[in-house]
């Protein structure tokens, strides 16, 4: 495997200042729509980067479940590794890797917990088995075996039968409020196009081009 020789050129197109929306959220909305139209697998999948109190970074893929000018929303176990990191250090980063479109979007910001009401409203839109799985799993905790996990899931299933499944105390969501957002479009000869929006006063944004 000669990994050092794996390469390709990026020829799908460029990104020019005249094409940019005034708001990075609107620019993201356009690119996400184009990712969906292109038939990308899991276009809402994003890599969430956190760091604990010691500065040790950690990353994992989560799914975007909503966004607007206030920020980008995801849900998780509130006792998980990521949640513990956020409790110690709310500064996070999101990365949307749309490889087949030769695009990336990076969000830099702070994660804040959603209200109980927001988490409850989303929780009951999930498939029933996903609700049960959220109750059964103690995310990021050591697990003796797969069989134990399946037993915990079955116990929750029997406990609630056909009744309503309550929102666990240890489950909720976060909104990442962006301070900056970068849009990357691959270019020929590694002359990529990069623009970063930085928040100014209030809801005003300023965009500048970065060297590739």
UniProtKB/TrEMBL annotation:
InterPro entries registered for this protein in UniProt: Pyridox_Oxase, Pyridox_Oxase_CS, Pyridox_Oxase_N, Pyridoxamine_oxidase_dimer_C, Split_barrel_FMN-bd
An annotated GO BP: pyridoxine biosynthetic process
The record's free-text note on cofactor binding: Binds 1 FMN per subunit.
Function of the protein: Catalyzes the oxidation of either pyridoxine 5'-phosphate (PNP) or pyridoxamine 5'-phosphate (PMP) into pyridoxal 5'-phosphate (PLP).
Residues of the Pyridoxine 5'-phosphate oxidase dimerisation C-terminal domain: 171-212
Pathway: Cofactor metabolism; pyridoxal 5'-phosphate salvage; pyridoxal 5'-phosphate from pyridoxamine 5'-phosphate: step 1/1; Cofactor metabolism; pyridoxal 5'-phosphate salvage; pyridoxal 5'-phosphate from pyridoxine 5'-phosphate: step 1/1
The keyword Transcription regulation belongs to this UniProt entry's keyword annotation: no
Residues binding FMN: 60-65, 75-76, 82, 104, 139-140, 184, 194
EC number, as in UniProt: 1.4.3.5
Gene (name only): pdxH
Quaternary structure and interacting proteins, as annotated: Homodimer.
Protein name, as recorded: Pyridoxine/pyridoxamine 5'-phosphate oxidase
GO MF annotation terms: FMN binding; pyridoxamine phosphate oxidase activity
SUPFAM superfamilies per the UniProt record, alphabetical: FMN-binding split barrel
Cofactor: FMN
Residue ranges of domain Pyridoxamine 5'-phosphate oxidase N-terminal in the record: 33-155
EC class name: oxidoreductase
Pfam families, per the entry: PNP_phzG_C, PNPOx_N
Binding-site residues for substrate, renumbered to this chain: 7-10, 65, 122, 126, 130, 190-192
